Every structure is written in C-alpha cells, then in structure tokens.
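Final report, Chapter 2: Outcomes

The project's central promise was a pipeline that accepts a single protein chain and returns its three-dimensional structure in a standardized token representation, suitable for archiving and comparison. That pipeline is now operational. To close this chapter, we reproduce one record exactly as it appears in the project archive, with the input sequence first and the structure output second.
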Amino acid sequence: MSMDNLYGKIFDYVMVNEKETIKCCKAVDGEVLRIMDKFQNKLNEDELEDLKDDLFSVSLEAEKAGFELGIKFLFQLMNS
C-alpha cells in the first residue's frame, strides 16, 4: 500500500468519525452555499448544480491536501 493510499484511508476514517472534523466540514459547506447564493439569479439550475459540484470537489481536494500536509508535518516532528 502506498503512502497516498494510507493517507486516504486515514483521512476517510477521520472525516467520518471526528466531531471537530465534522464541525469543520459544516463550515466549509456553509461557505460553498454562501458563494452559490451570489450566483442564484445569474445561472440556471443546471449551471448552479455544476457550480455546486465543482465547489464541493475543490473543497474536498483542499481538505485532503491540508490533511496530508498535516500528517507529513507530524511525522517530521516525531522524527526530529
């Protein structure tokens, strides 16, 4: 198993089971919805749905990248 797969499995477990993570995800979801509100009268329903999908996809990738960086930093600290 590669390190990326291991990070992914840990990330998936933490994302589902940690209260602080759930709280953070709700905040991100709120930001996505806030951004979408700005486009409510400018886009049709299909375009709004595409925007929502794209924003949630970007936020998930950012969360994964931040998590991976945090894990790498933790390992560096432990090895210092």
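Archive annotation: The helical segments are 3-17, 19-37, 45-78.
This record, like all others produced under the grant, will remain available to the consortium after the project formally closes.
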